Description:
Blueprint: E1 2-7, E2 10-12, E3 18-26, E4 30-39, E5 46-51, E6 57-59, E7 67-72, E8 77-82, E9 91-102, E10 105-110, E11 114-118
Parallel strand pairs: 2-11
Antiparallel strand pairs: 1-3, 3-8, 4-5, 4-9, 5-6, 7-8, 9-10, 9-11
Amino acid sequence: QVQLVESGGGLVQPGGSLRLSCAASGRIFSINHVDWYRQAPGKQRELVAGILTSGNTYYADSVKGRFTVSRDNAKNTVYLQMNSLKPEDTAVYYCNAGVSETRNLVNNYWGQGTQVTVSS
């Protein structure tokens, strides 16, 4: 099977930066879209950013100009560079990926999440 693991979260001051990683391992034929979601206590999960197989990226209005998604296909890893962090960015961040384990088997996978806390 396939496993997604997020890493890179932590505590950072407002205005600081973090880079999150989402690494896929296991039986991987190909990786399609990869999305980043976040969820804060008492709030609904929201889509933050994502990247398609074409390399096209998309961002929530709240993070445009501050966050950047990139991918390293050789490493089966997607990154979320977060700059100019604000307290409202505090949340658990999850990656979600569409992964083809074989030509005829495609599944949607979630990572376990990584905590990002922005506070002075």
